[in-house]
Design a protein that fits this description.
The complex is a heterodimer. Chain A is an alpha+beta fold. Chain A is built from 9 helices and 17 strands. Classes of the chains: A alpha+beta, B alpha+beta.
């Protein structure tokens, strides 16, 4: 028997060398909200109940923040534009409006929460996209002014000063929803999860095996390919690019990220901007604002702060990755002509 | 009391047989217990969250055309071996048609006005967990 004991021991040990059982499938849900597709995948803790709670949170926010839902608080605010009424809002809506105004001040001329009339003029909100006439655009631009949005956070209320002004929270709502859903999931005991709110990816914790999540950045010129892959934990990666929604007229492409200074689609030398931050709402808002700002201004802005990292894809096929991402990133588009560089502080 | 085996200094034929058996088991485990290497790709088409069709793209021998007439904006989906696209859509934005062909697990085509999603899953997992953009 002793002769075979080592043999049996070896067999026992070899069994440990077998392929690991496939990691448990996550609990997940996919749904439409905030005019986009969202998915939540929970890998540990919480399960389906947590997903349901997070989904309800997001859908509740959509009812408050949607500009196309006539019963939303934002619709109420817009419908009272110019009549002097201070519209009562939930505290979180007032805080969000205040945050959106603050982004306008962080990057003057690159972001304006009252851009809605111009978006409507281009048809980006109605899906009937077209080039607006000069008169239509001029009239819409006259209504864009975030200084005319007066928010009273203490009283949880706001008003728009001039008739015709409208607020659209499309550039911040998904980031806000990510933050709220993140909090709900953690309250429910979730320690490892992945939220994809219309291309805004929020990761909770690390993967079940303890390694960082691998989040690819879409190639703006070939959306079925990746530009690079980032290693993230407890952060949001938010991307804005002209390729997301656009139309073509007379051989020219017109995308949906409007420069508040000109009323035309931003033409700043960038094809896409990805902002990575532990502040989900900030990541969402800045991806739009920095796309309008352009590569040099975006990097200057990054150097002025400690709470964001960037991936910039320029029109001349350069991919600029800020140094905070360097350790965990890998390029994926060299064969498509991209060159990669690390931006230093 | 020492066993006869402990008194021997040189390995016997039996010792060699045991070593060979261990090596054979190791080879068996490596070859047969590693994850499957097949490249199955399944396309699931959902409309308002309800599955309307499902195809194993790697097993399609002939192209398939699916007319989704119950959608708000009727559309035509074309599937071929290994790939799928929205060939035509009456939706105003046309973002779904512009997405073109998709072929790898993890990829999606979304028609927002129709609330229609084509999702690919499969055994050849991507080297990443999510895509931003």
């Amino acid at each position: 028997m002793k002769r075979f004991l080592p043999f049996l021991c070896c067999l026992f040990l070899l069994a440990g060398c077998a392929a690991p059982a496939s990691s448990a499938e996550p609990e997940q849900a996919q749904f439409f909200s905030m005019d986009t597709v969202m998915s939540i995948r929970v890998y540990s803790g919480g399960g389906l109940d947590a997903i349901q709670a997070a989904r309800q949170e997001i859908e509740g926010l959509d009812k408050l923040l949607s500009r196309t839902d006539p019963d939303s608080q934002i619709s109420a605010l817009n419908s009272h534009a110019g009549d002097g009424l201070q519209v009562s809002l939930d505290a979180e809506v007032a805080n969000l409006l205040s945050f959106a105004k603050s982004v306008s001040q962080l990057l003057p001329g690159c972001f304006d929460v009252t851009i809605a009339p111009v978006m409507d003029a281009w048809g980006f909100t109605t899906q009937e996209r077209h080039i607006p006439s000069a008169d239509t655009l001029s009239a819409a631009m006259a209504l864009v002014d975030s200084n005319g949005l007066i928010v009273d956070e203490q009283a949880s209320s706001a008003r728009l000063e001039r008739a015709g002004m409208e607020v659209d929270l499309g550039a911040v709502a998904k980031g806000f929803a990510a933050g709220q859903a993140d909090a709900v999931l953690r309250q429910q005991g979730v320690t490892s999860a992945l939220l994809d709110l219309g291309g805004n990816v929020t990761v909770i914790g690390a993967k079940p095996d303890g390694t960082a999540w691998q989040v690819a950045v879409k190639d703006p010129q070939n959306t079925s390919e990746a530009l690079c892959v980032l290693s993230l934990e407890d952060q949001t990666a938010s991307t804005s690019g002209g390729y997301e929604r656009y139309f073509e007229e007379n051989g020219q492409i017109y995308h949906h990220i409007i420069d508040p200074k000109t009323g035309y689609p931003a033409d700043s030398g960038l094809l896409s901007v990805t902002v990575i931050s532990a502040d989900h709402m900030l990541a969402d808002a800045l991806s739009t604002a920095l796309f309008v700002a352009g590569p040099d201004a975006a990097l200057d802005f990054w150097r002025s702060r400690e709470d964001i990292e960037l991936v910039l894809c320029t029109q001349d096929n350069r991919v600029i990755v800020t140094e905070g991402l360097e350790a965990g990133y890998r390029p994926a588009g060299e064969d498509r002509g991209y060159t990669y560089e690390i931006a230093r502080r | 009391m020492r066993s006869p085996a402990a008194d021997r200094r040189r390995p016997t034929l039996w010792d060699g047989a045991v070593a060979l058996a261990v090596v054979a088991c190791a080879v068996f485990l490596v070859l047969f217990l590693r994850p499957a290497q097949s490249s199955a790709v399944t396309a699931v088409i959902t409309l308002n969250g309800e599955t309307v069709a499902q195809y194993r793209l790697d097993q399609l021998s002939q192209p398939v055309t699916l007319e989704v007439t119950e959608a708000d904006y009727p559309l035509t989906i074309r599937a071929e071996q290994g790939r799928i696209c929205i060939e035509h859509s009456d939706c105003p934005s046309q973002d779904c048609v512009r997405t073109g062909w998709i072929s790898r697990p993890g990829q999606q085509i979304i028609c927002l006005p129709n609330r229609l999603v084509i999702s690919l899953s499969g055994t050849d997992a991507e080297s990443f967990d999510a895509v931003t953009g």
